[in-house]
Structures are given as structure tokens and as C-alpha cells.
Design brief:
The chain is of the alpha+beta class. It contains 13 helices and 19 strands. The chain has a six-stranded mixed sheet, with helices on one face.
Length: 498
């Protein structure tokens, strides 16, 4: 089967995705090309246009239903080779490059940079073969490309699960793969009540009777005419009434001032902010949290960190958080019940206990919190952890993470130690995980001296850590055991080297 026929097969209605992967393997095509091939449809518009290919919005993640158009890397008339980045696509969690997999020339861009909520499958550009006159496509429109559809509305669980959980995890917070019609009963048709178009008004809302000169003077002086008592016939407000008006107090002018200049600003919630809100609300509603706190000495850890960084010759620079990530992995291996998650698979409730420790690291970005994953931490050295955290953190802040780099994880660390005002805090569990560790800042604390005299004090560097655990999965005693193992390895950091 040639690649042209392969394209048409993937654009046909009702194709089977798993079968298509087998076809890709059989034809020697790279399965990574499938999202790009799915975004291409051979079209011959009803108007007189040369043969062309319509490029549609690709699905860059399993649950993506729409995306925003970022920066176009190619302009109309540019030649494109397989693997070239055509345009940046912004999802609710990342900005991803859409790599094109065919030779050709970009004839026209149908969706400009900045277009929001473009549904998957909607036309975004037109490609032609080299040598085709692209001038004939100046009048090409979306209707010529087959029109566009409205983005599919996500259920709240689907939108939330996009942030850190794939669709097939089996947890309660994972997006459902069933159609909406099979999950909810049809809502009754809304009925509009009859109305005569009027609105009941209170006497205060009715405009008072006032002469034109009185209205003009009230407007000029900023006098609230509703508060003026008229002395004219039938209570009509005159110009003299406006001149004699004196506010009862300074507070009387507050409503007028507030009406003239709003004291607030409504900021539309971004798709990522909605995702964060939905996931945290689900986590608090579905996961019975309990919290275990401990004060941990980090004096030995800081000395070891300084010694390692001094001998690194610039090859690496370890942070306190790198040690915390490694210590959490050691504790998860010693208390594997914490390295687990609550899931429902084929109607059966199971607790999945993971054999590897993938630590999600909370990273603050300009558009919200993200949790990129350092995978297989139990088998990594401190320098490897440090390098991965720096790389993932930078790409998270730049919006360049791939879905597989933030979806999943078995345990999470949220470290606010860089803020000297934060002694301690509690964190919300990142579902479907069963635990998260909140790390506060380092404080110097006076403790009894270990010298033989025993009368003095010495200074100890200490951190307060707070573990949040899902009581469905982790009993209180187990959570306490995990904190003890974590404390033990942090206070004896050489154990991380074993």
C-alpha cells in the first residue's frame, strides 16, 4: 500500500486506531508520524482550484479535542520537507511543535496565529505540490476546505485529567472513554417562560421628575439626582434644588464613584487554570486526605551537598531538592504502600503498587503549576536527578513539555523552601497518586549541645516536611512509617549513596 493510499485510509470515517498502528508497522511507517498523517486530507474543492491537500488541526494527545494556534514556522510559499515544524500548537498544558511528514509547498494559512479553541480535524492550512501556482489559492476559504466544526465540549473530568493523567489509568479521576450519551441521562429541554418584555422597577429605580436645567447642572456637579428632594410642583426637581443640595456624608458619594470607576477586574480563566481547579477539587472530594508532619535536620545534608558541589568542577550543581527527591524515592521503596494508587479496572477496585518510583516535581510556571516527572529515581544518582530536574523545569516554564513528561508519576514533591517566609504548608494530592510531600524552608534552630559538658547550645539546620496521604490507600500508621524512613535517610544522607 503506497503512502498516498495510507493517507486516505486514515482520513476515512470510522477507521480503527489500533488496526492503523499495525498497518503503519507493516508498511514500514513510523507510528510517530500518525498524528501528522491523521491531520491531512486530500481535497478537491467545488471551486476550480488545483489539486491540493488540506492540513487539519492534529490531535497531539489522546484526550485533546481542540487547541490554540501558536507561531507559524512557515509562511505561504515556503517549501516544506518531512520533519519540518509547520506550526506550534498550544494545548491546555504545553506548546508543542507540529512536524509535517510530507514534501510540498504551503499554499495558504487558514487559521492565523492566536486563533483559540480550534477543534481537532478543522482545516488550518493548504498544501500543494512543488510547481503549483499558489496564487490561485488567495481566494481559498474555510468553506472551500469543507468548513469547520465546533470544538467538542469536555466533561470536567476529561479536561482535568489532561494535566497529569492519561485516559487509560483506571483511576476515578481519569477521563472516561465512554460517549457522553452513555454516561449521563439526557437533560430535559429548557423551557422559556413567557414575558411581556418589561421589568418591574422599584420607586428608587424610576427616574425622578426634574427640569432639563436641573438635570444638566446635576450632571455637571456630579450630584446624585435620585437623592435630591424636589421643591417644584408635584415634587419636580428644580435648578435651585441642585444648587442647595448637600450630601448627608462623604459615604453618600461612594456608590456614584464606584459606578463610574470599577474597583475590580474580571480576568478570564485560562484552560490550564480550569484544569488545575477541576483536578484539585476532584482530589479533595474523592481522596480523604490526612497529614503527617515532621521536623527534619538537614545539617549533614547541607555539608555533603557543599562538599559534592565543590568537587564537581562545574559539571553539576546539586540543590537541596535533588536530595529530597532521592530521599523520597528511598522511602517509597522501603514503604511501597505509599508508592501506590487507587484504581477501578473492569469494574473491580484495585490498589496498584508500583515497582518503580517516578517522582512528579511541582514547578511554578507563568501559566500555572505543572508536575514534570523524573522517572526511575530509585536507580538514578544525584547528578542525574539534578540534570533532569533542571531540564524539565526549564521546558515546563517554556511550555515545551510532551504529554508523557507530565502524565503519570507515582509520588509528588512540592518544595517551597526557596521562600524564606514558608515554615511549613500542606499540599493537595495529585491523583491518581496516593501521596505528596510538602517541603518548607530551612531554619536555624538552637538545640542542646552534644558536647560532653552539655551546658551549651548549638545551631541545627532544620526543615519541616508534611506528607499528605490518601486514606483509601495509605493507613495513618503507614504514612507515619514513610515519614520516619524519609527523615532517617535525610538525616543520614550517605544512605542515598548505597
Amino acid at each position: 500500500m503506497d503512502q498516498g493510499n495510507f493517507k486516505l485510509l486514515f482520513c476515512a470515517p470510522g477507521y480503527n486506531h489500533s488496526a492503523s498502528k499495525s498497518l503503519a508497522d507493516a508498511d514500514g511507517l513510523n507510528p510517530r508520524q500518525l498524528p501528522a498523517l491523521l491531520a491531512i486530507a486530500r481535497s478537491y474543492a467545488s471551486k476550480s482550484f488545483p489539486p491540493h491537500t488540506v492540513v487539519s488541526m492534529p490531535a497531539l494527545s489522546p484526550t485533546m479535542t481542540s487547541g490554540n494556534i501558536g507561531t507559524w514556522q512557515k509562511a505561504a510559499g515556503d517549501t516544506i520537507a518531512p520533519g519540518d515544524v509547520l506550526v506550534e500548537i498550544e494545548t491546555d498544558k504545553a506548546q508543542m511543535d507540529f512536524e509535517f511528514q510530507e514534501d510540498g509547498v504551503l499554499a495558504k494559512i487558514l487559521k492565523e496565529s492566536g486563533e483559540k479553541d480550534v477543534a481537532v480535524g478543522n482545516p488550518i492550512a493548504v498544501m500543494v505540490e512543488e510547481g503549483t501556482d499558489i496564487a490561485s489559492f488567495e481566494s481559498f476559504t474555510l468553506d472551500d476546505a469543507g468548513g469547520e466544526k465546533a470544538p467538542e465540549k469536555k466533561e470536567s473530568t476529561e479536561e482535568a485529567a489532561e494535566s497529569s493523567e492519561p485516559a487509560d489509568t483506571g483511576s476515578q479521576t481519569a477521563p472516561s472513554t465512554l460517549p457522553k450519551e452513555s454516561r449521563t441521562e439526557s437533560a430535559p429541554e429548557p423551557q422559556e417562560s413567557e414575558s411581556r418584555g418589561g421589568r418591574l422597577q422599584t420607586s428608587l429605580e424610576r427616574e425622578p421628575s426634574a427640569s432639563p436645567s436641573a438635570k444638566a447642572l446635576a450632571l455637571e456637579r456630579g450630584v446624585p439626582i435620585q437623592q435630591v428632594k424636589g421643591s417644584g410642583p408635584g415634587g419636580r426637581i428644580t435648578k435651585q434644588d441642585i444648587e442647595k443640595y448637600k450630601p448627608a456624608s462623604s459615604a453618600a458619594s461612594t456608590p456614584s464613584a464606584a459606578g463610574a470607576a470599577p474597583t475590580y477586574e474580571d480576568i478570564p480563566a485560562s484552560s490550564m487554570r480550569k484544569t488545575i481547579a477541576n483536578r484539585l477539587q476532584q482530589s479533595m472530594n474523592q481522596n480523604p486526605h490526612y497529614f503527617v508532619a515532621a521536623t527534619v535536620s538537614v545539617s549533614k545534608l547541607l555539608k555533603l551537598r557543599q562538599a559534592l558541589n565543590t568537587s564537581a568542577d562545574g559539571q553539576y550543581k546539586l540543590s537541596v531538592n535533588d536530595f529530597m527527591i532521592k530521599a523520597a524515592a528511598v522511602a517509597c521503596k522501603k514503604v511501597p504502600a505509599v508508592n501506590s494508587s487507587w484504581r477501578e479496572i473492569d469494574g473491580q477496585i484495585v490498589i496498584r503498587q508500583h515497582n518503580v518510583v517516578d517522582i512528579s516535581v511541582a514547578v511554578a510556571t507563568p501559566i500555572g503549576l505543572m508536575t514534570p516527572i523524573v522517572k526511575g529515581v530509585e536507580g538514578l544518582g544525584l547528578s542525574s536527578i539534578s540534570a533532569q530536574v533542571k531540564d524539565l523545569g526549564k521546558r515546563a516554564r517554556d511550555g515545551k513539555l510532551k504529554p508523557e513528561e507530565y502524565q503519570g508519576g507515582t509520588f509528588t514533591i512540592s518544595n517551597m523552601g526557596m521562600n524564606a517566609a514558608i515554615d511549613r504548608f500542606t499540599a493537595v494530592i495529585n491523583p491518581p497518586q496516593a501521596g505528596i510531600l510538602a517541603v518548607g524552608t530551612t531554619k536555624k534552630v538552637a538545640i542542646p549541645s552534644s558536647a560532653e559538658e552539655g551546658n551549651g547550645v548549638e545551631w541545627d539546620d532544620q526543615v519541616v516536611v508534611t506528607g499528605s496521604f490518601d486514606h483509601k490507600v495509605v493507613d495513618g500508621a503507614v504514612g507515619g512509617e514513610w515519614i520516619r524512613e524519609f527523615q532517617k535517610v535525610v538525616e543520614n544522607p550517605l544512605e542515598m549513596m548505597l
